[in-house]
Amino acid sequence: MRFGLFGTGPWAHLAHAPALAEHPDVELVGVWGRNPDKAAAVAAQFGGAPYTEIDELIAAVDAVAIALPPDVQAPIALRAAHAGKHLLLDKPVAFTAAEADEIAAAVAERNLASVVFFTRRLMPPVADFLAEAAAAGGWREARVDHLGSIFTEGNPFGASAWRKESGGLWDVGPHALAALLPVLGPATEVTGMAGPHDMTHLLVRHAGGAISTLTLTVDAAPAAEREETVFAGEAGIRQVPGAEWLPTEALARAIDQLLAAAAGGPAPELDVRFGAEVTAILEAAQEAITTGRTVAIRSAR
Questions:
Q1: Read out DSSP for 135-163?
Q2: pLDDT digits (tens, 9 = 90+) for 239-289
């Protein structure tokens, strides 16, 4: 499958470009970036040609892989879907549920394949645990602590403008929800508060009645960094196992799923419709924090 890569930042270097370049069933045709010099550098390192026009690269490929901020990703993804191209997107799909839904609708109308890159959900220890937990059922609550610190020396994501502005809710919140939803079911309402240093606390009610609590930040004190997801219910207390952070390996699995779906196989669990569901929850959570009230999830109304 011929891919075009959109994005030239740290995530493109760490995950997208090497995974695409190394995959035996992928041809990396070209790279587009907001900085043409960086696009040329990525193309020189990983293959393909630099492109200066978005639509020219879309026209030259079968699929697009996007490693860009959500507000930049969304319109490019929609243009690609309208052009009949398969989508390999980053999380969150967009900053608004309306934009994410529009992309999902375009994908469905054209019977396209799509995958949203929720990194650890694609690692076997995590994927297997969540499948087993979902099959077991009987869960009454869950807790997610996802506290990182990207604003430390040497962290490649610390200079990300959208992460500085949108914080942990939109950066690590998608990962937290990606682990909760397959086990507890769709979210119906959310409330939350935000404190100093991007500390965000959410309460989410799920369709089956379970409540999940989320603590999120990308500006934690380094000594307080932690990542833990725990489910509790009839089966007792179960913690999601840790998985080594291997973004290139995870993205290779995402590519495998996209290729299989494009060839007529089943839609991936982490498709753009799932990504839109996550975006709807994040948008409602942002409203809840801003207004100080409980907000119904738009997709569940």
A1: HH--EEEEEEEEE-B-SSTT-TTTT-HHH
A2: 999 888 899 999 999 999 999 999 999 999 999 999 999 999 999 999 999
Which DSSP helix (H) or strand (E) runs through 191?
Answer: strand 187-194
Q: Please compute, for residue 21, the number of CA atoms within 13 A of its CA located in the half-sphere on the CB side.
A: 18
The pTM is what?
0.95
Query: What value does the CA radius of gyration of the chain take, rounded to a whole number of Å?
Result: 19
- The SS3 assignment for 275 reads helix
Burial of residue 260 (number of CB atoms within 10 Å: 0-12, 13-18, 19+)? middle
Domains in the chain, start-ordered, CATH in brackets?
2-119+247-269 (3.40.50.720), 121-242+279-300 (3.30.360.10)
- Burial class (CB within 10 angstroms; exposed 0-12, middle 13-18, buried 19+) of 300: middle
Q: Which residue has the tokens 């989410």?
A: 204
Instruction: Identify the pLDDT of residue 300.
Output: 43
Dump pLDDT digits (tens) for 230-244. 999 999 999 999 888
d(CA 153, CA 164): 15
Cβ–Cβ under 8 Å, residues 62 and 42: no
- Phi then psi for residue 220, to 5 deg, are -75, 155
Strand partners, 193: 201
Q: Return all residues near 5 (Cβ < 8 A) that are at least 6 apart.
A: 12, 16, 17, 20, 28, 30, 31, 32, 42, 48, 64, 65, 66, 67
Per cent of the chain over pLDDT 90 is 90
Using alpha carbons, list the distances in angstroms from residue 253 to 126, 180, 272: 13, 21, 16
